[in-house]
Design brief:
The chain has 167 residues and is α+β, with helices and mostly antiparallel strands. It has 6 helices and 7 strands. It has a 7-stranded mixed β-sheet with strand order 1-2-3-4-5-7-6. Helix 4 packs across helix 6. It is globular, with a radius of gyration of 16 Å.
Length: 167
Amino acid sequence: MALSGVELLSDRHRLEGFECGKPALDHWLANFARSNHARGFTRVLVVHDAGQVIGYYGLAPTVIEPNTAPRAIRTGRAPDPIPCLLIGQLAVDRRHAGRGIGSALVKDALQRCIAGAAIVAGRAVIVRAIDGEAETFWQSWGFIPARDNPSVLMRSLDDIRAWLSGY
């Protein structure tokens, strides 16, 4: 089976039947991904097998309050709020789990965040973990919890740039 590369969601992508094991993520893909993408709220990127989406994530701009950010992110004269990039929903269909698709999606998202920040600026990448399992997943990628909410995790773009330069 030959999978696609990561590409922007389009009308040719089929969303039905996607199941990652987290109903909220399945529901978002089925009911909000297309409209959020079309209206410019979120850029949805997908991996598919002959048009059937088997993995996806969303990217959007966001902000954080300086008092919630770790020192590495709020150094210098940080504006209030601090501009950031958000990796929204990220999921892989459970029938395709364990094949490296999730890791490929994370790396792609981080690379796109670096590229986007070069154009519009931003200090960090933010994720909002759906549960404890997701918190652990993002921590394994070097994300650290916000000072006031363990479900909001972040990693400075400088740190991500340095990490990606090793690839």
